[in-house]
Task: inverse folding
């Protein structure tokens, strides 16, 4: 008993040590999204190419889809653009572009010159939807399931590694879930 | 001595430069000075999601600017502090709070130090009590011990 008591400080020290050691390897830049598990917030945004056409969260299809925040002022978006084009050719899921705090004319020009990977493009001029989704930069990508619930958020450009290791497995899993629920 | 003085000068000048940091200025008109004070103190308590070591008032990033204005408008429209903080955390997570909330995830953070303090006091108390008990224990010797002591103290008196 007496011996055991003497070891208590050591145990506490080791416990705290392990805890703090783990903390050394956490990336403070990676924030967990507060919105995972919540429905897509209400929005009313014009389509980028067709200002007269207003889309809301109800216009999102009842299947697994991706929301991708992008802008012409964002270099990382240019970096991920070719990969998104490739994904859209594979036709795996609808990809909605949200043009974030951008100039309409510039954005349209960029899509016509570089190609348009998006199923539809929303024009979020003042970043309101971005703010409601907790976006703090671009590009950011949200994976939404067939019930319109946000299931995953990825901040940063999508490339081969991120896609094969993180996003695609998750999308496949959600599509399987959707199949079970009877939605396509 | 001169060298020490120089170092002190450098340090004080550094101190002054730290206090003259520019903060972005917003041209937002508050409805009242009281609102302004409340909004600014709130914005000071919220962390910018982009520049993570700055608060909303200090940060220059567009996101911080938006959130700042959002906070100002919410204060002006008479929303309570809890409502505004909820607005922020529901979008950006608990991360934006400089003062973490008290919930199951942060109990150890808030209560851990007190726990350690109590443990320390407890250990100290036990230790002191032990010493007291040892000090007050009777110091009379049994007859064998007395004999042994005598043998040690007066080795020439031993019967041979």
Result:
């Amino acid at each position: 008993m007496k011996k055991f008591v003497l070891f208590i400080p050591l145990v506490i020290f080791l416990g705290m040590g392990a805890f703090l050691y783990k903390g050394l390897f956490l990336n403070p830049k990676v924030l967990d999204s507060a919105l995972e598990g919540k429905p897509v917030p209400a929005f009313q945004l014009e389509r980028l190419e067709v200002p007269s056409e207003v889309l809301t969260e109800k216009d999102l299809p009842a299947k697994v889809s991706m929301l991708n925040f992008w802008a012409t002022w964002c270099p990382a978006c240019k970096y991920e653009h070719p990969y998104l084009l490739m994904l859209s050719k594979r036709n795996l899921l609808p990809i909605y572009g949200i043009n974030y705090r951008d100039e309409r004319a510039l954005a349209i020009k960029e899509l016509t010159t570089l190609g348009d990977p998006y199923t539809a493009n929303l024009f979020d001029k003042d970043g309101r939807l971005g703010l409601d989704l907790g976006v703090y930069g671009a590009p950011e990508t949200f994976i939404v399931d067939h019930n319109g619930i946000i299931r995953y958020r990825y901040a940063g450009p999508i490339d081969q590694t991120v896609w094969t290791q993180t996003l695609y497995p998750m999308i496949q899993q959600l599509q399987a879930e959707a199949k079970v629920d009877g939605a396509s | 001595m001169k060298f020490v003085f120089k170092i002190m000068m450098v340090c004080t000048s550094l101190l002054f430069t730290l206090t003259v940091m520019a903060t972005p200025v917003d041209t937002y008109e508050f409805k009242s000075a009281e609102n302004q004070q409340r909004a600014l103190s709130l914005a000071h308590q919220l962390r910018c999601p982009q520049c993570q070591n700055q608060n909303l008032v200090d940060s220059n990033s567009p996101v911080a600017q938006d959130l700042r204005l959002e906070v100002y408008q919410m204060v002006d429209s008479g929303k309570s502090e809890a409502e505004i903080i909820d607005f922020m955390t529901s979008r950006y997570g608990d991360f934006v709070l400089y003062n973490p909330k008290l919930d199951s995830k942060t109990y150890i953070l808030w209560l851990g130090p007190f726990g350690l303090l109590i443990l320390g006091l407890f250990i100290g108390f036990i230790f002191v009590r032990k010493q007291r008990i040892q000090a007050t224990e009777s110091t009379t010797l049994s007859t064998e011990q007395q004999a042994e002591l005598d043998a040690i103290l007066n080795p020439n008196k031993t019967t041979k």
Observations:
- The two ends of chain A are 64 Å apart (CA to CA).
- The helical segments of chain A are 2-23, 75-90, 104-114, 128-132, 160-180.
